[in-house]
Write a structure and sequence with these properties.
Blueprint (H helix, E strand, L loop, with lengths): L24 H29 L4 H24 L31 H16 L17
Helix pairs in contact: 1-2
Length: about 140
């Protein structure tokens, strides 16, 4: 008995894995972190803005820096929420060149002369000074500092 794969598009409402789980535990932790971060950045921007208006010239830079931090945090929040989504297209007939790419298996053509020289160099170093600390003094049996 053979089974053929269905070529009909899936129902968008059932079993769709291409959606963000907004209320899962991990997502709620991300939301809380975002809210806390944006609140801290807002307070920091407000404090630096009031300092800048009162005459602290360096505070002008900081007053614009805090909102940039909030925007960066929002961007990272968005990227982390969508990080686990599958990257395959919804319609199986639409394939990109990226999905058809296969990594080529590279076979060495011969022995790499540079690699052999490097391995011999490392073997000489390990023979002269083995790993694990300085060698003991053969006369006194003490370790040199």
């Amino acid at each position: 008995m053979t089974t053929e794969a269905s070529t009909e598009p899936r129902d968008e409402g059932k079993g769709n894995d291409n959606r963000v789980q907004w209320w899962s535990g991990a997502s709620l932790r991300l939301h809380g972190t975002l809210l806390l971060g944006v609140a801290i950045c807002s307070v920091g921007a407000w404090i630096e803005w009031t300092r800048a208006l009162s005459g602290h010239t360096v505070a002008w830079g900081y007053s614009f820096e805090w909102p940039i931090f909030a925007v960066m945090g929002t961007y990272m929040w968005w990227k982390l929420l969508h990080a686990d989504l599958p990257t395959t297209p919804r319609n199986p007939t639409q394939r990109s060149e990226r999905s058809t790419f296969r990594r080529r298996q590279v076979q060495p053509a011969g022995e790499d002369v540079g690699l052999v020289a490097w391995q011999e160099y490392l073997a000489r170093l390990h023979a002269a000074d083995p790993p694990g600390g300085p060698p003991a003094d053969p006369v006194r049996g003490q370790v040199h500092d």
